[in-house]
Specification:
alpha/beta, Rossmann fold, six-stranded parallel beta sheet, 9 helices, binds NADP nicotinamide-adenine-dinucleotide phosphate
Length: 289
């Protein structure tokens, strides 16, 4: 199968690159903004015309949640216009689209995991642009798998886990919010889940899927687990969100209901702690390389 991965230098794109390296049957194209800006309709059309992908996995996104509050136009350009451009080219060329979205499309007022059909109601510019991007993907390309995920980390790129490791080495004590509940996701697990959905395309309907690792925890819990797993002697103090103001508001609760995804044949949803341990092993290996 001919597969196009956009935004392939990011966390998820990098994990897909590694997974596809083990799959010789697929012909994969990995591109990022340097090769193709997804917001450029002429360039995208000509790319699709030349390469004719059968599946496009869109990992390209504007992901700077706080910065988006002061750069709404740029966030919208990538997360809405860019998605629409890709979706239109997929629709016109007969390709399927895998588009990635976020738990931040929800307002966080729920007290049980968000189902795939729960109404979206974002509380930040980033969340708003991602919600609009979801709409554009689903309404423009009739062959869209929309995969919402949450709290993504990996050995590649910048993320909360790597920030905690850095701070844990620099400081003896840190404060981390303990009143936002969600589910961490190792980008490698998400990449595997996306491949499973594509591989099971005869039985997986197009539409919305939720994927995270299993478990509902706070950022404090995650930070404490990072210190413990890595072996860092840094005390983590729980604090309320009100003591750590950020430009963007975040949902207080954003656990995703994984039941639909769990029913896809061959789908694996690992426990968050097992995946964190494996990722930290990888981070240590890369540090020592
Ligand atoms: N990270 C999380 O915690 C999280 C949580 C929930 C959902 N998600 C979603 O998961 C997906 C993957 O996230 P990620 O963490 O892998 O993101 P990431 O590491 O920020 O990677 C995004 C990639 O897209 C590229 N990009 C930006 N604008 C582009 C454009 N106009 N054309 C082509 N490429 C462009 C970026 O390049 P530059 O770096 O040069 O800008 C970057 O390489 C995104 O849809 C994100 O919204 C992420």
């Amino acid at each position: 199968m001919k597969i196009l991965v956009t935004g392939s230098n990011g966390q998820l794109g990098s994990e897909l690159r590694r997974l596809f390296a083990e799959r010789t049957a697929d012909d994969c194209l990995f591109i990022d903004i340097g090769e193709l800006d997804i917001t450029d309709p002429v360039a995208v059309r000509s790319f699709f015309h030349e390469h004719r992908p059968e599946v496009c996995i869109n990992c390209a996104a504007y992901t700077a949640v706080d910065k988006a509050e002061s750069e709404p136009d740029l966030a919208r350009k990538v997360n809405v216009t860019g998605v629409e451009v890709l979706a239109k080219n997929c629709e016109d060329s007969g390709a399927s689209l895998v588009h990635i979205s976020t738990d931040f499309v929800f307002n966080g007022e729920a007290d049980k995991p968000y189902s795939t059909d729960h109404p979206v109601s974002p509380v930040s510019v980033y969340g708003l642009t991602k919600a609009e991007g979801e709409n554009r993907a689903l309404s423009t390309c009739s062959r869209t798998w929309l995969v919402r995920t949450s709290w993504v980390y990996s050995a590649f790129g910048g993320n909360f886990v790597k920030t905690m490791i850095r701070l844990g080495k620099e400081r003896s004590e840190i404060n981390v919010v303990n009143d936002q509940v969600g589910s961490p996701t190792w980008a490698k697990d998400l990449a595997r889940a996306i491949l499973t959905i594509i591989d099971q395309r005869e039985v997986t309907k197009y539409g919305i899927y939720h994927f995270s690792d299993k478990g509902a925890i706070t950022w404090f819990d995650l930070a404490a687990a990072v210190m413990d797993t890595y072996g860092l002697n840094c005390k983590v103090n729980p604090i309320p969100t009100s003591s750590y103001p950020t430009p963007a508001k975040r949902p207080a609760y954003s656990v995703l209901d994984l039941s639909g995804t769990a029913s896809v044949p061959g789908m694996e949803i690992p426990d968050w702690k097992t995946s964190l341990q494996q990722c930290i092993e990888e981070i240590k290996t890369l540090e020592n390389a």
